[in-house]
Design brief:
Chain lengths: ~425, ~550
């Protein structure tokens, strides 16, 4: 055993040293700043992630037209991890080690993020993750530009509990069976209990990825709702399974006025494959809707539809997250005067960008953004109409206050904390 | 100058309207209330809606309907609530109550009135009260249903009158139900209310059970929501009776769900029963043939939508032969191009067709984009038949069951009754003998594979009605399809039918008991165990074909 590890070291050390040498010369030779784009362009997730790849290309293109960054042109390096979680890690390593990118924008599912996390930490690179997620994580090398649970799930449930949302008393938690829905529902269950909802008034159900036969579950929801209390459904159903789910809702005549469904993974893009007339009034919670009226948003939509050459294409929340993330990164690079990861990271904290909703998004030392929370109802044209929003931006919370063991933890990457999951600062 | 003049004219018109109207006070109150609809506060809007319904002024129904159909706006210039109708490039404005013209405006000059679920409920309830006396029976049913959800004290007497006057046998029970709910909510004596509960107990739908159960809920101090013990007892008794009645319908509902899932599995697997079952080709690209069928439906529907929207309802029917031809053509091309070189080498076939499935997926992704495509349901496939007890049979599922049986029967006829079917069976049973009899075995192979693929394409038309039309559509069905064919017995259409139905029904009954994820696992384990016991499935083929 010892011998083997020694042998490995004998091989690895020179390779690593050679690698370092190569990377040093490469950095000197580089006359462009390379931006890695790590989104699936084939496989199950291509449906959502291809759009984000195009968004990044548009943003980079736009920045280059403005003269690039630090006097250099930006260069997009696009790879395809093909919706294959281990391949995400390989491609991330390839981007950082071989392609020498300075920053990576990518991932969608939490599984893919968890898969690349060790690579980014080991090689000390920087990832911008644009999708709403379950929280309970804070890495020094990841900036989370999507919503944490307190910026999406909790306000949505609060809205449904309130008078305007219909004063729901009974809850169905529906989800696809993987880490994001399970963790979100764990937080929601704790939150509902804290609000005095009884165990018997919560129904939790999971389905496999790509589930297409929703008859039984929708019938069960109906039955559960006939207990004499106002019932609401919280859906963390992901990806393709949403279309048959909403079709079944429509066919079984479940109206939003009777049993509202609030979804956390359904945006404009997902609705573009469905006839939304029977779904009017069902809800979604995001930090951005395409229908938001602001000069920034109007401009962004116009640019996007011109770039993608289609008037039909929609914009959505993760696209806005990339918009904010990319702007922030360029500002931080300008401020730091270099693309060095450690310097840029320090410059990121407190960086402010006017978001597409017209509010100011700020990067906090826990690597999360402050963003407004919007609740929208589905309209018959496939868009959302905002029916409620928070007074101002809400700061993303990495560790949920409703899970006892997480409530104690703090994520803060500034001195003296410098830690993603500590109970007290590392440096006193 | 002109503005002044028009202002004067408007004032004059106003005076005219006011002076000719008999109930001036009511009208001006209604106008104020309409103005309140433009408020930012939902509570204030709700008050205004209820107030408007109470005034009973002419035109209120129109205003509330316009609100629901999103035709009410606030004009930004003077904050006035207006009714706006879209013409080609701009909006024509009218006063909401009187429909007096107010000129035109651009969309950017108008703000749509706010609307959420709570408000929608209030609007429908208010409209329900107003349309109970409508001449259209469908409207009356709708109105009575709305009243049932939130009856007001004032509606008890109205409902009694409406019920007495109602002659339509379909509408009567609905109104009776609403009346009972109204009496239960607002009745004076506990006896009258208990009687209302007994009336409600004769209905079995979930809304009634919900209403009755809400009486028996205890609050945190242990007090019942319903204070009268007499009413509580009646409610408990009615609920027990409903539960007894509903149990059988529940079972039927579940059976329907199972048969429906079975029919979907049957459709997906039936093409495979030919390519894999009859020809023995392990075709991993089978799912992609289904997908191609679904995309054909999409293309046909797009063409019809843009060029002949009147025929939208038959687009799916037109798509059936087209999908058969397109997917069949792909099948023939695949057989001639790849598979014929790989007969007798299952491993290579498996890998080659798997690679092919990836190529086809990516091809579709490049042509149509990675996002889902919308395939609409024709009107005869939307909606549902409601059974007693709230179980629903949705029309799209019913049609798919019918469709799968038709496809199965047609295919069986082709195999058993046509010359091509005879040749096909001859080639699979003894290729060399068939060849010696003058059958072009190569041609028969290509056609058989084309037939299997074409049937898969037809399945795609049906699946486009219930599932995503995305490049991944086929992948979701490939494992299930193989499972059905292997379980049912390779090379046997009857086996495929029984296999699909057994798996579908078993899956649905297990799902109700264990949840969707576990049900899938149980089924998989059960099929594996079954195959251990009977390696050739439920219906094993006997005879020479098995040995060759």
């Amino acid at each position: 055993m010892l011998k083997l590890s020694k042998a490995i070291r004998r091989i690895v050390v020179p390779i690593a040293a050679a690698g370092a040498l190569v990377s040093a010369t490469a950095v000197q030779a580089a006359d462009t700043i390379k931006v890695g784009v790590l989104h699936s362009l084939s496989g199950t997730m291509a449906i959502s992630e291809t759009t984000l790849k195009d968004t990044m290309l548009m943003l980079i293109d736009e920045q280059n037209k403005k003269g690039g960054l630090l006097g250099k042109k930006l260069e997009a390096v696009v790879v395809d991890p093909a919706s294959n979680w281990p391949l995400f890690a390989e491609k991330a390593r390839d981007l950082i080690q071989n392609k020498k990118v300075d920053v990576v924008f990518g991932c969608w599912t939490s599984v893919s993020r968890k898969s690349v996390l060790p690579v980014f930490e080991e090689l000390n690179s920087m990832l911008f993750y644009p999708v709403q997620y379950e929280g309970e994580e804070s890495s020094r090398n990841v900036f989370y530009t999507g919503a944490a649970p307190n910026q999406q799930a909790i306000p949505a449930v609060e809205y449904l509990m309130g008078e305007d949302g219909g004063s729901a008393k009974r809850w169905v938690l529906l989800g696809t069976d993987y880490v994001y829905p399970r963790t979100t529902n764990k937080i929601l269950r704790a939150f509902l209990k804290a609000k005095g909802v009884k165990e018997s008034d919560i129904m939790e159900k999971y389905t496999p990825f790509g589930h297409s036969d929703w008859q039984t579950i929708v019938a069960d929801v109906k039955k559960f709702a006939s207990a004499g209390k106002k019932t609401a459904v919280v859906s963390t159903i992901n990806g393709d399974a949403n279309v048959p789910f909403y079709k079944e809702l429509g066919n079984q005549g479940i109206k939003a006025e009777d049993i509202p469904v609030v979804a956390f993974s359904v945006g404009e893009e997902e609705l573009s494959g469905i006839d939304t007339k029977p779904l009017v009034g069902h809800l979604a919670a995001w930090n951005y809707f395409m229908s938001v009226e602001s000069p920034e948003n109007k401009d962004f939509i116009a640019k996007w539809q011109k770039f993608i050459k289609s008037k039909k294409r929609v914009t959505n929340d993760p696209m806005e997250a990339h918009y904010i993330g990319f702007k922030m990164w360029t500002q931080a690079v300008k401020q730091a005067g270099t693309t060095n990861v450690d310097a840029v990271r320090q410059a990121m904290y407190g960086q402010k960008v006017k978001s597409l909703t017209g509010t100011v998004a700020e990067m906090h030392p826990n690597h999360h953004l402050s963003k407004p929370v919007l609740i929208g109802e589905i309209q018959d044209n496939g868009q959302f109409e905002t029916v409620w929003k928070t007074k101002g931006p809400v700061v993303g919370d990495a560790w949920s206050n409703y899970i006892p063991e997480s409530a104690k933890l703090t994520a803060n990457w500034k001195f003296p904390w410098v830690c993603g999951n500590c109970q007290k600062p590392k440096h006193f | 100058m002109f503005e002044k003049l028009s202002g004067l004219l408007a004032a004059f018109a106003c005076i005219c309207v006011l002076s000719t109207s008999p109930v001036v006070a009511q009208d001006s109150k209604a106008v104020d209330l309409v103005q309140d609809l433009g408020s930012r506060s939902y509570s204030k809007i709700i008050k205004a809606v209820n107030g408007l319904a109470a005034t009973g002024v002419n035109g209120v129904e129109g205003v509330l309907n316009a609100y629901l159909s999103r035709n009410l706006f606030v004009r930004k210039s003077d904050k006035r609530v207006v009714f706006a109708k879209k013409t080609d490039s701009q909006y024509r404005l009218f006063a909401p109550l009187t429909r007096q013209s107010l000129g035109t405006a651009k969309r950017s000059d108008l703000t749509k009135l706010r609307l959420n679920n709570r408000l929608r409920r209030t609007l429908r309830a208010a409209l329900g009260g107003l349309t109970l006396r409508s001449s259209d029976p469908a409207q009356r049913i709708k109105a009575a249903n709305v009243v049932f959800k939130a009856p007001k004290a004032s509606q008890v007497s109205i409902l009694k009158k409406v019920l007495a006057a109602e002659k339509d046998e379909n509408v009567r029970p609905v109104i009776e139900r609403s009346l009972a709910a109204a009496v239960l909510a607002h009745g004076a004596t506990s006896k009258a209310r208990a009687e209302a509960v007994i009336v409600l107990g004769t209905y079995s739908d979930p809304d009634v059970s919900a209403r009755l159960k809400s009486l028996l809920i205890k609050d945190s101090a242990g007090r019942f929501a319903e204070k009268e013990p007499l009413v509580r007892e009646a409610a408990q008794k009615a609920l027990d009776e409903i539960a007894e009645r509903v149990a059988i319908w529940d079972f039927i509902g579940k059976l329907f769900q199972g048969v429906s899932l079975g029919s979907v599995l049957l459709l997906a697997a039936i093409g495979l029963a030919i390519t894999f079952g009859v020809m023995g080709v392990i075709n991993m690209a089978h799912g992609e043939m289904v997908m191609i069928g679904a995309y054909t439906t999409f293309v046909i529907q797009e063409i019809i939508r843009t060029s002949a929207p009147a025929f939208f309802d038959v687009s799916v029917i037109i798509a059936i032969p087209m999908a058969f031809l397109v997917a069949g053509a792909f099948g023939v091309a695949i057989e001639r191009g790849i598979i014929r070189y790989l007969y007798g080498r299952p491993l290579e076939t498996l890998l080659a067709t798997w690679g092919l499935s990836l190529i086809l997926q990516q091809m579709v992704r490049t042509i149509f984009g990675p996002t889902n495509r919308e395939v609409g349901n024709p009107s005869w496939m939307t909606g549902a038949i409601e059974l007693d007890g709230g179980a629903l049979l949705t029309y799209n599922r019913i049609w798919i069951i019918v469709f799968s049986v038709v496809v199965l029967v047609l295919l069986a006829l082709v195999l058993k009754k046509t010359a091509f079917g005879l040749q096909m069976r001859a080639v699979t049973q003894n290729r060399r003998m068939a060849s010696a009899m003058g059958i072009r075995t190569g041609w028969v192979d290509a056609m058989t594979f084309g037939l299997g693929s074409g049937v898969a394409g037809v399945a795609g038309v049906a699946l486009s009605q219930i599932d995503n039309v995305s490049p991944n559509l086929g992948q979701a069905y490939i494992v299930d399809s193989f499972m059905v064919v292997v379980f049912g017995g390779v090379g046997n259409l009857l086996g495929t039918l029984f296999g699909a139905l057994t798996l579908g029904v078993a899956n649905k009954f297990l799902e109700a008991w264990s949840g969707a994820v576990l049900a899938k696992i149980f089924i998989l384990v059960a099929v594996i165990l079954f195959i251990q016991k009977r390696p050739s499935g439920i219906f094993a083929l006997k005879g020479r074909a098995v040995d060759s």
